Amino acid sequence: MRASAPGILRWCLDFPKPEAAISLQQLTDGLLFQGWLLLQDGVKKAQMYVRHGEHLATAELSVCRPDVIEKVLQQPAVGHMQLQCGFSQRLALCADHAVVGFIIDGQQFDFVDIRIESTMKVLQGTFPWLFLDNDTNQSVAQFTGKLTLCGQTLNDWKQYLDALEALQQQGRKLAALIAPTKEMVYPQYYPHTPAQNTPVQQLREHVGASAILLYPAAELACADQRSFRYTDTHWTHHAAMQVSVLLAVQLGLDVTAVNACFANDQYVERSVCGDLGNKLFPPREAPEQLLCSFNYKQYLRYDNGLPNFGRVMLYENDNALSPQHCLIFGASSSYSMLNYLVRLYAKISIVHTAGNVDPDVIAAIVPDSIICQTNERFIVRAPVAHYSLANTIQEKLADMTAASASELKLASASKSGATHHSYFHALLSKG
After folding, report:
1. What's the first-to-final CA gap in the chain, in angstroms?
2. Is 237 contained in some domain?
3. N or C, fewer C-beta in 10 Å, the chain?
4. pLDDT, position 430
5. How far is CA 149 from CA 93, 154, 205, in A?
6. Hey, how many other C-beta atoms are within 10 angstroms of the C-beta on 161?
């Protein structure tokens, strides 16, 4: 911002350095501001300051810097009148923007402008809406039409949906859910203009009318309650309930009975960060309505504990609406639906595959209904109907240290109930 000012001979900010990688823990504990300031003759008093938000923190020139005297002034450091020209201050910032400057005889001069940016950038929509940016699936490019689906990808999707319809013809109820992106449901709050033909629109036109494909963007856009969290990529609990009802009806359950299961649900407002709010500094929170009258976790019978792909969980609820076993090949959006689906199906097996289908899993647990769920931003790569869960688990365990794998097996075993299917025993034994 400024190279010099009256009364200043030379200066340097040693830390923080430009483009430096700084952890959230460092920011929380206090960011180090360190450097030095050499003054011209006649200056009576000088201080360094950091202005962040509405706060102004100052530091005295109290650190001896013989290196500066000898290298910059090329004078002997011993006994030099400006030997104490250094400053060092740790400061817990309250904003993502700070200014470093110097007070010279009572007058402030801004010198360095500092901005803290996450490596995973966040798009600022209409306040308080946050959206995902620069992700590996290029969600912004999808929305703006700069990234479209090629012919091969569209054909891969058609083959995938054909394989699911073949499974349905074998007597199993099946639904393929594409969880819409936040920006497709609420484009009015998004800082980009939508394309005429986005990838999801391409896909729907290519596969035509499909009885199993569910893309509830329109339903979520006109819902009575807000469908997406302000500071998160995922939908709200209210939206998870609405989509669970849509799925259950598509899978053959009675809509009146399904709605009755959730009629007395209670929600409480809480201030939460979310996966986008946590990428900002300071983390941004927003109010959300969270289900407080039911928690699906009490029905957990098995969890292999793997992160993301390869995770396997089993839930059982003897008081569920239907005695059926529902298998979910899901992604992150499936987790919040468990609060509702666990009350609809006596048994829920959920496998984190982002919609990829493993025929061996289906053959092993013989479900009555199957939900294949992926997220809209993932559609640039079609799921497959010949996925191998066992291979994914083996690869993840192979990448772990022996101690970590052992701890994972112990944790999985401690969560396992006596009623879970032998297939899950088999998965555990592979570790």
Report:
1. 57
2. yes
3. N
4. 41
5. 43, 6, 12
6. 22
Task: Quote the CA–CA distance of 290 and 244 in Å, as a whole number.
Answer: 16
pLDDT reported for residue 54: 85
Please tell me whether residues 53 and 131 are part of one structural domain: no
pLDDT value of position 402: 61
Count of C-beta atoms within a 10 Å radius of residue 71: 11
Phi/psi of residue 131, nearest 5 degrees: -135, 160
CA nearest 372: which of 361, 364, 95, 380? 361
Do 186 and 307 belong together in one domain? yes
- Dihedral of alpha carbons 88, 94, 95, 101, sign: negative
Q: At what angle do helices 199-207 and 151-169 cross, to 10 degrees?
A: 50
How many CA atoms are closer than 13 Å to the CA of 343, on its beta-carbon side? 20
Out of 373, 389, 405, pick the residue that ends a domain: 389
Q: Rounded to two decimals, what is the model's pTM?
A: 0.77
Strands 312-316 and 300-303: antiparallel
Give residue 428's pLDDT: 43
- Do 223 and 302 have their domain in common? yes
The Cβ of residue 108 has, within 10 Å, a number of other Cβ atoms equal to 14
Residues 195, 321 share a domain? yes
Distance CA 84, CA 101 (A): 18
Structure confidence by residue, pLDDT tens digits, 190-238: 999 999 899 999 999 998 877 799 999 999 999 999 999 999 999 999 9
Please give the pLDDT value at position 419: 45
* Residue whose C-alpha is closest to residue 306's, from 424, 397, 414, 417: 397
CA of 96: how far to CAs of 51, 86, 135, 142, 358, in Å? 11, 25, 21, 29, 45
Domain that holds residue 24: 8-115
Q: Specify which residues 103 forms β-bridges with.
A: 47, 108
